Every structure is written in C-alpha cells, then in structure tokens.
Amino acid sequence: MRAVRGLGSSLAAALALLAAALPGAVTPAAASEPCRTQVGPQELPAGVELRPLVELLGLPQAWDLATGAGVTVAVVDSGVDATHPDLDGRVARGSEFVGVREEREFVRDTPARQRDCEGHGTAVAGLVAARGADGEGVIGVAPGATVYPVRIADGVENATPRTFAAAIADAVAAGAGVINLSLAIPSDYEPIREAVERALAEDVVVVAAAGNEGDARMYPAAYDGVLAVGAVDAEGQPLDSSNPGDWVDLAAIGADQVVVSPGGEGYRAEGGTSMAAAQVSAVAALVRSRFPELPATEVAQRLIRSATPLGGGRNDRTGAGLVDPFGALTGLGGREGEGGDDAAAAPAGRVPVVPLPRDEPLLGPTRATGLAVSGVLLLAVLVGLLAAPGLRRAARRGWRAGTAPRRPAPEPPAPPGPPAARLAWLGGDGEGGEGGTTDHKAPHQNRSRTP
After folding, report:
1. In angstroms, what CA-CA distances link 249 with 141, 178, 196, 207, 325?
2. Which residues are CB-neighbours of 141 under 8 A, at least 6 positions away?
3. Catalytic residue among 77, 81, 86, 116
4. CA distances from 283 to 292, 351, 430 (A)
C-alpha cells in the first residue's frame, strides 16, 4: 500500500472542521424533501443466488473468527433504508447533509427515518452488514458490524467538496472505525483531501472505489493511505470499466451482486467498484473486530498482504489481488517477499507461521552426473561378466555358430581290486606293496584264537 502520512491531528480538529462548516441549527425549510423518485426492488431471474459471496470469499471460515461485532462502518452515500428486514438492528441513526444556496453550502440534519431515494447506499450497507432475516435473504461480509449512514441528500454527484469533507468529518466524530466511500471524483479537492488525512490520522480505515470510467485517476481512492478498490468478476477477471492505476491497492467482486433494496423489502442487482469497495470495508471491520488494538495502517496492510494475486501478480487493475477475509484474519496467505522472516517484525495480531521447507533436490547436478557415470560403468562390468562364458565357448568353436564339441572327461584311475590291495594303494605302496605281494589271509588270523 502507498505510504500513509500521519498528520498527528486529533479528533478535536475533525470536530472543529465539522463545526465550522455547519454553523447554526438546520431550519425546517432546509430539511430534505421526500424522494421525488424512489428506486424499488427488482424481479430477479429464477435461480439467482442471494448469497454468492459466502462461498466466493470463504466467509464461513472467517465468521468463526470474527463477524465485525463492535465495529462501526460509516457509509457516505445516498442514505440507507434501515426498514429492510435484512438490515434490522444493523443501522445506526446516522446523519444527513442537505445542500443550501448560501455561503455555508449545506446543513446537517438527523432525519426521522433513514431515507435512500437511489438505493445505492442501501446496497452498500447490505453488502457490509446485512444479517439475512430469518435465515434467508442477503447476508453481508461483516454481519455483526454496525452501519452509520451519512446521507448526501442532493445526490453524490451534486455535492460540493466542502459537503464531502464535512460528511467524512461527521463519520470520524461518530466513532467509525471504517469509512466506506463508494464514490469517485475526477479531481483532487483540497477540502476532501484534508478531511481524508484527518480521518487517517484519527486511526480510521478509509476505503474508496476506484471508479467505473475505464481509464481515469479518481479521488479519494488515489489519495495516500486510502484503500483503493478495483472490481473483478466471479472468475477473477478485471471488469473493463474498473479504473486501473498504480494507486489501486486490491480488488473485490464487482460483477452484478444481489443487494438489499430500499423500500422496506426486496432485492436489486448492482455492480461496479462501489460494491467491491463495500466488501473491502466489511473485511476491514472483521479485522478490527478480531484485533481491536491493531492500528488502521496495519489493518490496511493486512488486507493487502493477504490478498490473492490475480493475473500472475500485482497489476494496475487489481492491485495486490482479490481480498481474502480468512487470510486477513489469520495472517495466512501472505505473499513471498513481504514482511520478512522475523515473526517479531510481523504486525500485531498476525499469526506467526513457520515457513514450509523448500523442495530441494536430493542430489546436486555434479553428484547426479557422477552417479550416472558410475552406474554405466557398473552395468558394463556386469554385462562383461555375464557374457564371458559365451565368449569362451565361441572361441573354442572358432567363432562359428553352433555348439562346441565337449572334450571327454578323463577317467579316474581304477583302484586295485581286493580290499587289502586297495588299502595298500591308498597308503602309497603301489599295486602290491613292497615286493609286489600281499598276504591276504593275515587279517583273518586274528578273528579267532584258541587259548
């Protein structure tokens, strides 16, 4: 992620900005009017899955560790309709900024009910923290988090830079741990930049959409310290509309998502980098819920380090890759070369993981060559030993085909006939001992003696 600039400002500075921008109380004439046109639910095609992100992002494993409980995500947008059953209990009272044709440009109001004419903010809020009423419906990435809506009553496209700056300051003052800015502005305005810098200095994670123009540098996503989010489809392919740039940090699913609709019921299909940014904001809420003492800068770094690389590595459309909730919560899945091997240098809360041993070959090139040569020589010796008898036989027959005639085996000398002569022959006395004669009766004379 790009370097985060710490300004050392305090919450009092953000509140001072807000107070200066909002002098006096709102008058009834300045309060927002009811919606002239109200976006409502759509009839979705048969078989459309309401919770595709649950499996695509591996959320069941992440929810075993954190659900976002205790974290407030501010949604600066078109408002949030909190009456939808899937958002029941997940939306705080929030605030509303209404434009006025005066020097002060706008006033702040707290509406009696949350209102969203366009449906954009409600869609973002549902992707962040919808809880899926009665086990059905849409469920957000951080269903335990609380959404704090900051409504731009006149429409995001009509708001002045000072209005945006005041809305960001309001979110900081409300105690938001994460601010979602699913909006894109083609110019760098000083009031917005300073408001973002104050939010970062107050330990807030700021997430912004990269925009859907196709090839443009957009703000506040391009500001230092802001998590800029691109969009991909369910297969991980970047959307053509998602703005590229070296300022894009990571990506999330931006193809058409089933989202909560305003009007108190039903669903719609929404897509783009706005929906992708909502998912990243929710993952930041999961991390802040699991590690409440982790600074915002390190929360952002965890999300980037744990992202799943797309397209062979970091690139201008998807940054570090697809956001990975489980990886961000556990510290698993960090890419090689980031962070170093020393566990003590890892960000607070990161689970130290012993690196797996490298698959080294059993033999180096030199030893492998030597072993091969030795094997060839040994094989040659064995072949020679086995072939030697055949060579000798071939030599005896003059190297002609056929079977060599066998030489008759010499007959052993016949031993002498009678036993006495046989014993003398064994004793080396020749045929008949000395003189050539042997007394054959002598041995029998001792068999019977007369006393």
Report:
1. 19, 16, 17, 10, 15
2. 53, 57, 59, 68, 127, 128, 278, 279, 282, 283, 286, 325
3. 77
4. 14, 17, 113
Per-domain boundaries in the chain: 11-345
How far apart (Å, rounded) are the C-alpha atoms in residues 370 and 372? 5
**What is the tens place of the pLDDT at every residue in 273-314?**
999 999 999 999 999 999 999 999 999 999 999 999 998 889
> Which of 95, 242, 274, 289 does the annotation list as catalytic?
274
Residue closest to 68 by CA, chosen among 55, 80, 59, 56 = 59
> What is the CATH number that goes with domain 11-345?
3.40.50.200
The span from the CA of 90 to the CA of 381, in Å, is: 83
Quick one: pLDDT band at residue 409, thresholds 50, 70, 90? Answer: low
**Which one of 120, 182, 261, 306 is the catalytic residue?**
120
How far does the chain reach from its first CA to its final CA, in angstroms? 130
Residue 325 is predicted with a pLDDT of 97
- d(CA 189, CA 165) in angstroms, rounded, equals 10
Q: β-strands 178-181, 227-232: how paired?
A: unpaired
How far, rounded to the nearest angstrom, does the alpha carbon of residue 84 sit from its chain's CA centroid?
33
State the Cα–Cα distance between residues 190 and 441, nearest whole angstrom.
Answer: 145
- Please say if 187 is a catalytic residue: no
pLDDT digits (tens, 9 = 90+) for 81-113: 999 999 999 999 999 999 888 888 888 887 656
Q: How far apart are CA 148 and CA 143, in angstroms?
A: 14
Identify which of 7, 145, 178, 5 has the alpha carbon closest to the alpha carbon of residue 76.
178
Instruction: Let me know if 440 is a catalytic residue.
Output: no
Q: What is the pTM of this model?
A: 0.70
Tokens 């002569």: give the residue.
421
Is 199 in a helix, a strand, or coil? helix
Q: Which residues contact 336 (CB under 8 A, 6 or more apart)?
A: none
- From residue 450, alpha-carbon distances to 441, 443, 446, 447 in Å are 17, 16, 10, 10
Rg (CA), the chain: 45
Q: What is the pLDDT of residues 115-134, one digit of tens each?
A: 899 999 999 999 999 998 87
Note if 306 is an active site residue.
Answer: no
Residues 6+ apart with CB under 8 A from 102: none
